[in-house]
Amino acid sequence: MVDVSEAVKGDSKVPICPSIPSGEQTVWANASSLLHLACNDLRDGELIYGENFNLFAAMSALEIMDPKMDSGMVRTYYSVDEAIEYGAAPIPLSLDKTVDVQRIIDIMDHLLSCEATWHKGCSLAQTVFSCLYLLRPDRTSSHALLHSYCRVMRATCNAVVCTVSDTRTNEEEDLFTMTHGLPLKVDGDDKCLTMLHAVEETIARQLRACKATLSKKRVTEDIEPLQNNPDLEEGLCKSLLCQLRFRKHFYHVVMNIKRPQGRGLELAKKHIACCFEELDSMIKSADFLRSISAPEDGMKNETTASGCQPVGFDSTLNSRLSAPTPPRAIETISWKKAAEYFQKLLHELEIICSYNLDTVFEGLLRFVVEFQKLRPELVARAHLQHLLVQDGKLYGRDSVFSVICKASLLPEVAKNHDIQKIEPVVQLGQLLITLLRVLCTNISWQRRKLGKILQDWRIIHVQLELAFRKECGDISATSSNENICIKICRHILIWVEEQTYWIASRFLMLGFELDLYSPSEYCMVYWYMYIILIKLAEKTHMRAMTSNDISKKKGKKKRDLVKEGGKDYQLPPAILFLQCHVYLAEGLTMMLAALRNERQMYVSTGPFNTEHERFVQHFELLLKACLPDHVSYYSFVETTAHAHLSNAAMYNCFKGAQRIAKELRSSFSNDPDKMAELRRIEQVAEHNSVALGLISRLGAVDASLKVQFEFSHHPFFATAVVKRS
Amino acid sequence: MSTKEPTTCLSEVGSSNQLETNNSNYVSHVKKLLHRRMLVGISDGRFFLGTFYCIDKQGNIILQDAVEYRSTRRSAPSPMEQRVLGIILIPSSCRKTCHVDSSIEEQLSLTSLEEQNS
């Protein structure tokens, strides 16, 4: 190849690196010519390699000078120090004080964009620490404003990294906590607030002085203005103040929200309110900043409010620090988007701070599920998890066993019982902690993990049962004066089962949020949901009954208990609430099956796999964990084979859901989340029963009738929409 | 040259597994250099030191246990930074120098080659 000869020619000009020593008694001998001649003699495709050659290893070699693989490529500058020497990060930024202030505001804006980009999953080295000023902490000390801002920035990043690495929420985005080689913990950064406060104070006085001059009042103190242009003084002071104050409050937020046992939540909430205010002022001051600067046209991704390119950033210098991952090309999100991101983050943190540290486990689960509906990103989720699990305790306060006892509706005395020391109970505690952690991860990761831990929950149930038998004898015997040990065992076993079905139902529901099901698969998904929800309702009911010491329930067939519940015996509202979901799932299963059986709609045939295969693909983890026992594809086929539109059962399902949802309103009048869910259930049930009526009346005469399923009223219960095509 | 090329060449190892041995003296000489320490300088000023593992007809070199050396300044002399990279492929297009760790005698024979070639 030509390049080789070029290399040979150029050889004499490039000196051998002097500081790399050869071996003892050996020298570095130039082999370029030999290699060149040997290559000429090689046949096409021939290689020179030794005995230990492994093609697979060779294929995974990092390719030097490939911009996607070689993070060490020398781009603009050789090093941070060289960049600084060449004037890439001057201090002061300009000798003109006005320009200096403007440029500092640009840096602050760009850092906000970088920080948001980092939170969204890029490495710290390529985002926040692309700032040369942050990389050389001592250099900024002569510039109080810049110095204090850099300090608080580093301290904030450090606090966030700590929270995320403590909670290990970053399993999903492992770039987040990689800080190797970055000056993240710098002496004195922990006192950043004192310095920031002093700078803020000075600027506040400058603003006051400027306002006094404007209103022709006599200036009481003689203060040097922020910069030289009196017309811009007020605007620039204000812009700087909101930037500094935002940083101050945001730092308070991240420090307080992670104080143990939620002790800092109230304070954090106050600071969040301040953050919102300052962020608002920052957004408002954007117009002013734009008007006084000359933004470069055609900058498509503006990372500053002024629209000017910030000084002192170079993301290529640090790309080596992002190893071992290849240096990915990243795009810093725009300043506007960054501001929006922070508003969303603050809103999510506010929800966490407003949480009442519910001691009822079901309440806690509901809170986490609701929180996840906002699709919070890593930082918010890490803070939630940090609050929920600290030192292996719930909220860092309640021991896991006491949480389990409470959730199993056991009396207070149970939580000190020695049974908590036996191995399976300890393991159950760990499973619970894992569950909480998993629930705080992003939903796709979460679904995968939930599917996997189902089996653990099944196994622990068996182990607990065996261990309890050994400890307390026959636990199924029912006597009126049973001892506390037997009581604990029975309660916990029921609760474990209930929890397992709850996980299974969450697993199925998340599939809708992640768009994992195709319309032709809805029928089987709703069928599976139906049987899981029935089991869940049954276990929940059993738990309630056990605690009420109604022990005669054994004789009754479990399934009937829930199904006939509404008629002869008033079920508790929590069970009826689940019953609504059961009805909707059943109704939708039958409706979809009937459409398939009679009108060949949503027939589940694809070119690649059979319905049976898809059934296994979707529910493999549930089937493996025997959730529930004896269920298979054939049970699904059997249930749905005879579904017909003329069959009244499915009307009754939707009607039933509607009726119960209406009745339940009074029971949950002070629970806005549940009220909203009841409204959604009613809407889905109502629309579907109307649609069903339409289809069965018109379907036979009008062949052009189309039925579509949409998620307009509920995130996972579909609404049928009937249209003429 | 395209970045794909080395990969394609490597993948042919299995098929054209040197059915007949290459009689070139140069090739057998290079074979003797395998597993020796090799220092390769590239166009952006960096050096890579590693164990010579493989070379193809196009002159692409694979080094094992490679260490990257880079100057922290544009102007010489400059302090060097180094880091471990593992197995790397240096395309011939960016290779500027190539040295092997060798005895004085070997150096002399290589130098004579150099003179013949130039």
UniProtKB/TrEMBL annotation, chain A:
Residues 351-720 form the NAA35-like TPR repeats domain. Residues 45-185 form the NAA35-like N-terminal domain. Coiled coil: none annotated. GO terms for cellular component: NatC complex. It is found in: Cytoplasm. It comes from the Eukaryota. The lineage of its organism: Eukaryota, Viridiplantae, Streptophyta, Embryophyta, Tracheophyta. This is N-alpha-acetyltransferase 35, NatC auxiliary subunit. The keyword Phosphoprotein does not apply. Belongs to the MAK10 family. Its main location: cytoplasm. Transmembrane segments: none annotated. Keywords: Cytoplasm.
UniProtKB/TrEMBL annotation, chain B:
One of its GO terms (cellular component) is NatC complex. Signal peptide: none annotated. It comes from Capsicum baccatum (Peruvian pepper). Residues 1-21 are annotated as: Disordered. This is Sm domain-containing protein. Gene3D superfamilies: 2.30.30.100. InterPro entries: LSM_dom_sf, LSMD1_Sm, Sm_dom_euk/arc, snRNP_SmB/NAA38-like. CDD domains: LSMD1 (cd06168). Residues 28-100 form the Sm domain. SUPFAM superfamilies: Sm-like ribonucleoproteins.
